[in-house]
Amino acid sequence: METIKVKIDNTSVICPKGIKLVELVKKFYKGDQKDVIAAMEDNSLVELVEPIYEDCSVEFLTLSSYQARRIYARGLSFVLIRAAMEVFPGCTVSIEHSINKGLYGEIHKSDGLNKKDVSLIENRMRQIISKDEPFEKHTIPMSRALDMFKRYNQKDKLRLFKYWKDDTVDVYKCGWMYDYFYGKMVPSTGYLKIFQLVFYKPGFVLRYPEIYSPSTIPPYVEQKKLFNIFREAEKWADILDVADVGALNDKVASHEIGDMIRVSEALHEKKIANIADMISQKKDSVKIVLIAGPSSSGKTTFSKRLAIQLKVNGLKPFPISLDNYFLERGYTPRKSSGEYDFESIYALDIKLFNEQLKSLLNGEEIMLPTFNFITGKREYKGEKLKLDEGMILIVEGIHGLNEILTSEIPWENKFKIYVSALTQLNIDNHNRIPTTDVRIIRRIVRDNRTRGRNAEATLLSWPSVREGEDKNIFPFQEEADVMFNSTLVYELGVLKKYAEPLLEDIGKESKAYSEAVRLLKFLSYFLPVGETDIPQNSIIREFIGGSCFYTEE
Questions:
Q1: I need a labelling partner for 470 at 20 to 30 A (CA). Which of 47, 173, 314, 437 fits?
Q2: pLDDT tens sequence across 184-220
Q3: Which domains does the chain have, with CATH numbers?
Q4: Cα–Cα distances in Å, from 351 out to 223, 340, 363, 371?
Q5: Helix and strand tally (H, E) in the chain?
Q6: Termini Cα distance of the chain
Q7: CB neighbour class for 338 (10 Å; exposed up to 12, middle 13-18, buried from 19)
Q8: DSSP states of 456-485 as a string?
């Protein structure tokens, strides 16, 4: 019998050549074997049903990892779609976006969905999961796949695969049902032990564990404002006649993309103008505009465009950088690792910031600080500020929505804006595009262009960025007076040509390799989009270059 050497948790073991990863889990994982969702084999993400033929290093992935959580959500989505079709024959299901610590979707049938319907579907899901039915991967000819999608009346998949370059496609089978899913899958339904399906008019929310608490459903957090902004994105998609990636590719192939770009940008401009109008209507009380959002949301370009619209309304916007209010280095809080925690709100001199804001609101003049990042010291260079008639402060930073930042300022003097890239565009009805993927691709492109940073470095730092966002930004997003969705429906077709070569440079030896492979597969669905029709003030210009707002362009 031929053998191979497999390294697990820094221990090398001898195994039969061709052993499946699920057998390794049975032998070497201490705990519930079905806690392991997938594995990393020499930096490649693999399904547990895959055999191993070469010497390698293996890492088991549980729900405490982002990769496993994506796979878990994919499996749950498959079971939900099948259960819905069994409870309500002839219905169709769409998985649309994230909300309330889960996935929001809708079930389209002859009459509207209600709480009892959702309960029936959840019960059927639990029956399927209790039977531990396998997910089987099948590689089939594209012609057969297209016939199958026609039988299921899945027009979204027919649009998508119109531009597929391969002669075959991988589909998954569970019970009687076949479906296409982008990404890896769990071995069987029995792995999907923890979930909750709740009615959320007019659809449902499929809830499952977070990476921070992999064995429990997180507390329910109502997110009405976020839901409404996704609804707005859906309306914009209707205006643009782009429901999914296949529809976007149709626009590119038919040379209608230029007009779609112009309408997309006009929708952004109209929304920014409306926000400026809201602020202007409160100009007698609102003196401070606070703008916050996660990394690569386009906050800086949004702030500059908002300032222009405020000027149109006769106001005088003045930017205040929170970077200048950092505590001196010796007082900066540290992480448990001992590193400085610059993302903590307590890394800022909150007392000084509030004192200066109060002085400005009282009509007094202040001396603006600057922060020297080399010395870690605060400096004053003689720049003074006093609020004149019509002047309004624009404060951009990750903590803008956290009331601690401006705790001594009356709420009527503040206007809070949450900016994020909340895409409504999905690959198809069953395969959503996480907003995180849009932002990481934006950041890869911008980091390389403006900092000379390679994609590997950006990907390796991304989990830390996300952890900071989960702690410092997302808990406060519903505190915003208004939300702005910075996604442009066409942007991934533009970013594609910049991001692909950067991702292709990441080798198999890198810890970022599996994520690079995933993002390359994701970008492969999009036809490339040219830049000719993209205006210089577009948010996407912040990432690809050519913006009228930045001197380095």
A1: 47
A2: 999 999 999 999 999 999 999 999 999 999 999 998 8
A3: 3-62 (3.10.20.30), 67-207 (3.30.980.10), 227-544 (3.40.50.300)
A4: 31, 20, 19, 16
A5: 15, 19
A6: 62
A7: exposed
A8: HHHHHHHHHHHHHHHHHTGGGGGG-SEEEE
